[in-house]
Design goal:
This protein is mostly helical. The chain has 2 helices and 2 strands. A hairpin with a 3-residue loop joins strand 1 and strand 2.
Length: 61
């Protein structure tokens, strides 16, 4: 469950930082506004597919 939430949080951070460039490793930096729009759209689609984790855990009652 922590894995899922961490990925959702990371993707949400990308969506929330609309004006920022995106750096992938040391070699790639995306700064073109049109490309960034596409990246943001892809991330939003990823978030909708990940959705809310359909299970939850409770500690013993």
């Amino acid at each position: 469950m922590a894995w899922h939430q961490k990925r959702v949080d990371e993707l949400q951070l990308i969506v929330d930082q609309k004006g920022a460039s995106i750096k992938i490793g040391e070699e790639i930096e995306i700064t073109d506004p049109e490309v960034l729009k596409g990246v943001h759209l892809g991330v939003k689609i990823s978030l909708s597919l990940l959705g809310k984790l359909p299970i939850s855990l409770k500690e013993g009652e």
